[in-house]
Amino acid sequence: MRSFLVPPVDTVTYGPGAFDQIAAQVERVGGSRVMVVLSGSLAGGPVEAALHERLGATVVGVYSRTRQHVPRTSVLEAVQVARENRADCVLSLGGGTPIDCGKAVALALGTGIAEPADFERYRVRFTYPSTYEVPPIEGDIVPHVAVPTTLSGGEHTGLCGVTDDATRSKDAYTSPKLQPRAVVLDPWVTAGTPDWLWAASGMRAVDHAVEGILSARHMPMTDALGAGALRLLTDNLAASAADPHNEQARTDCLLGTWLSIFGLTNVGVGLSHGIGHQLAAEFDMIHGITSAVMLPLVMEFTREQTLPRLRLVAEAMGVDTRDLTDRSAADAAIAAVRDLVTRLGVPDRISAADGTPDALEKIADHVMGDAAVAACPREVTREDVLALLRAAW
């Protein structure tokens, strides 16, 4: 028996001019005192100025110092600003880091989290292969409006990652209550995103789509949405990275990211994500790079278990598979992902990050406790993970 979950977002507004509706979206979710969690790169720039112009005195606080991978201490700094200003709504504007921080701020405001150790009460605990402990989040959570400037897709889920400063393990927190109530997708706010970051975050969206299709729990609805996402992303990522003012290409990538996320929320993703979460937290890599590094290797690792699924991936990425065997189609799918990484110029080795091979053992331990691994269609051992990490180095 399978069921399909539609994340409980009230509205997704998209296309050129969508940002002009931001005040209406805040009002619609009941916000009157807005706490803004902003990417540091946007602070003091035209996008922040446009936000203040549209929201005026409704903005009661701005936090723009969230560190990458959302350390608990960054969340608590933002929470203090929100509490001091009696915020009743969170608005995140930027990439996956401020969006996840916005969810974590809403979580903390609703549950009384005040110290780093308080996060322990709500983090997801996973024991391989399939044992989950998901603590309930009681009480009311303030509404959240999300405006992304990258393609990480976090605006479409009730899941966030927060890093334990002490262990550098990235922990998951999840509840439908953490889902942003309104999402605004406007290509204009993305124009200042560096081309390398836009391209890398696009690989994260590709990873969502591919691993959703290859998931051990795959289903027709997520297959169709994932394939649609891959078509939009394959056709538009390079053009949108080369020209940040190509509004149609940027809008299509934002829409592809939206389609890609339903795999994560319904059938789970897999080993590329599980490894990527922990790689990113340990070496301070962005998730788009971890996807570019790990996704082709994980596709090869699960190749024999996913041959018909890989044909669907190849077709969605523009490969004519009519005369190909399943194995040839699988090879073509993996090659198509690698070709896209190359065309986008995204790094594809772990050694590009500022880290040391000595940390790979610890990362492998953390990966085996990452809930994303449960959706991998092949049995996974710690030794398998370590071998993949070493191959990716």
Automatic annotation (TrEMBL):
Domain Fe-containing alcohol dehydrogenase-like C-terminal span(s) in chain numbering: 199-393
Endpoints of the signal sequence: none
InterPro entries tied to this protein: ADH_Fe/GldA, ADH_Fe_C, ADH_Fe_CS, Alcohol_dehydrogenase_Fe
Annotated ranges, domain Alcohol dehydrogenase iron-type/glycerol dehydrogenase GldA: 12-187
Keyword flag NAD: yes
Top-rank taxon: Bacteria
Keywords: NAD, Oxidoreductase
Family: Belongs to the iron-containing alcohol dehydrogenase family.
Protein name per UniProt: Iron-containing alcohol dehydrogenase
Species per Swiss-Prot/TrEMBL record: Pseudonocardia yuanmonensis
